[in-house]
Every structure is written in structure tokens, then in C-alpha cells.
TrEMBL record:
This is UTP--glucose-1-phosphate uridylyltransferase. The keyword Transcription regulation does not apply. Pfam families: NTP_transferase. It is an enzyme of class 2 (transferase). It catalyses: alpha-D-glucose 1-phosphate + UTP + H(+) = UDP-alpha-D-glucose + diphosphate. Its EC number is 2.7.7.9. One of its GO terms (biological process) is UDP-alpha-D-glucose metabolic process. Belongs to the UDPGP type 2 family. Keywords: Nucleotidyltransferase, Transferase. The lineage of its organism: Bacteria, Candidatus Collieribacteriota. It comes from the Bacteria. Residues 9-272 form the Nucleotidyl transferase domain. SUPFAM superfamilies: Nucleotide-diphospho-sugar transferases (SSF53448).
């Protein structure tokens, strides 16, 4: 299979974020800030670092906050320039100006499940590989490459493939919460033998689990369609990945850095603390604050 450049990424931000209500009534959870930066900004920054040229963000109808965020505000720019504070948007433009952003509403006719936002952008994916990112998953790797760059580089290293899934190692007792990945030859990266969704503890044979960073070939759409639903009539991307895996070789790349999910308030808080500890302007004072609080 010929090596091909990965130019596009799809970021999902179409859920209701019910675990964060009422904050997410009119704001996608992907727009909640980790410190002073929305979660989705960190995800988009990973894509930009990896050389992604077009970022497709899937949103739900009636909730345009993500689209508004990545659309420049002339009024704000003018104010900051006049006030000599334009540096406050430097981080924003390091992402917003370096990729073309496209916003797509998730098709409301598609079934429930995380396969529907991907299927909603099928018409924008040419016959080429693309990145998929869950908009509430983060990778913290200070001084090193982000998760997207690592999976894209591994995809290119493989000379092109039908798919590369990001994996991370977790304690055995936590594997039951994720999709367990078994590799053909053991180790921490290479060809995938099987993926088992949320295995029972007695069935755990690997401490590798997949998470929300992957490169997929366009061939995934041979299996991902609105009639190919799974349990309870839901449409899950992993079901289609299982079907693709039965026909084509897929690979796993264990990511350097720490995988952090922000899908519930406690994990969101933990992620915020970990990011704060990496900030030179916050870490020292914040550590002292925590010491006082836990006395």
C-alpha cells in the first residue's frame, strides 16, 4: 500500500455533555476550559502540530459555540491591539491560522453512537486517510510530540496502512473500562490481533487500551453506514473498526505522554490539575495552595 500524506482530521463535538449540565446546556463540553484554553483547542493544536491542513469539526445543530470560537473576532482583535494586549491571543492564532476549519452538523437522522459524527462527514473525505479525534480526550506530553503527530508519523512509517489506533497502558483492573488491544507479537506497538470492548477482568490479556486518536483509511466507510448498527440499534465506530480488522491489517501505536479524558467532572478536574502543574506561571503557587487545602 502506497504511503500517503494525512491532510484531514475529524474532531467530534456533537454530544450533549449531560454529565456537565447545566454548564453544557448551551456550551459543548469540548469548549469547557482547561485553565484558560478550551479542551477542543488542545485537540486542534495536536492536529496542527501533525501537519493537518483541514480540520473538520462535527457539531450538533443549534450549538455553534465551537464554530464561533474558531472564527476570528475583528472587534476583539481591534480592542486588544489598541490596548497593547494582542499577546493574549497568540496561542489562539497559533492554531486558528494554521489550518482550514470546516464545521458540519451531525446528521440528526443517524442513530445514536459515536459513529454518526464520522459518517456525517463522509462526503468530505476523499480517497485518502484521515485522523479521528474524540474532542474530550487529551494527551499531556510536555516537551514531546502530541498524540496526533505520533499516530500520523507511525502511519507514514508503516508506508500507509488501513488504520493506526493510539493506545496507552493502564493498570490491569482499569482495562475493563476501555477497549483492550491485543497485538500479534506482544509488545507495545505493531499489528493488532484483536480488540475487546470492556472485557471482564478474568478475560484481560493485555494492558493496552485504545483511546481517541487514530488514523483511518477511507475504507472504513465500507462498514460504517447508518444501517450497519450494533446493539440496541446504535452506531459505534469501533464496531466498524472490528469489521475492517477482520479484513485488513490495522496497527497500534502506544503514545508517549499521558492520556487524559475529560468526560466527567472528576476526570476533568484531574486533567486541569495536571495541566496546571505544567504551567510555569501557575505551578509553584498552585502546589502551595494544594498543600494548604489537604492539611
Amino acid at each position: 500500500m502506497l504511503e500517503r500524506k494525512v491532510r484531514r482530521a475529524v474532531i467530534t463535538a456533537a454530544g450533549f455533555g449531560t454529565r456537565f449540565l447545566p454548564a453544557t446546556k448551551n456550551l459543548p463540553k469540548e469548549m469547557l476550559p482547561i485553565l484558560d484554553t478550551p479542551i477542543i483547542h488542545y485537540v486542534a493544536a495536536e492536529c496542527v502540530e501533525a501537519g493537518i491542513e483541514e480540520i473538520i469539526v462535527v457539531i450538533r445543530p443549534g450549538n455553534e459555540a465551537v464554530m464561533n470560537y474558531f472564527t476570528p473576532s475583528k472587534q476583539l482583535e481591534s480592542y486588544l491591539i489598541e490596548a497593547g494586549k494582542e499577546k493574549h491571543l497568540q496561542t489562539y492564532y497559533e492554531v486558528a491560522d494554521r489550518a482550514h476549519f470546516v464545521f458540519v452538523h451531525q446528521n440528526p437522522r443517524f442513530p445514536y453512537g459515536n459513529g454518526s459524527p464520522i459518517l456525517s462527514v463522509k462526503h468530505l473525505i476523499d480517497d485518502e486517510p484521515f485522523v479521528v479525534c474524540w474532542g474530550d480526550d487529551l494527551v499531556l506530553n510536555p516537551g514531546g510530540p502530541g498524540g496526533v503527530k505520533q499516530v500520523v508519523d507511525y502511519y507514514v512509517e508503516r508506508g500507509g496502512a488501513y488504520g493506526v489506533l493510539a493506545t496507552t497502558k493502564v493498570p490491569r483492573e482499569e482495562v475493563v473500562r476501555y477497549g483492550m488491544v491485543d497485538l500479534m507479537n506482544g509488545g507495545e506497538e505493531g499489528q493488532i490481533k484483536r480488540i475487546v470492548e470492556k472485557p471482564k477482568i478474568e478475560d484481560v490479556t493485555s494492558e493496552l487500551v485504545e483511546f481517541g486518536r487514530m488514523v483511518l483509511s477511507q475504507e472504513i466507510f465500507e462498514y460504517l453506514n447508518e444501517t450497519n448498527t450494533g446493539k440496541d440499534g446504535e452506531l459505534w465506530l469501533m464496531d466498524s473498526i472490528h469489521q475492517l480488522l477482520s479484513k485488513r491489517p490495522l496497527y497500534a501505536k502506544t503514545i508517549q505522554g499521558e492520556f487524559l479524558t475529560t468526560g466527567d467532572p472528576l476526570r476533568f478536574l484531574k486533567a486541569s490539575v495536571k495541566f496546571a502543574m505544567q504551567r510555569d506561571d501557575l505551578a509553584s503557587d498552585f502546589k502551595e495552595f494544594l498543600k494548604e487545602e489537604i492539611k
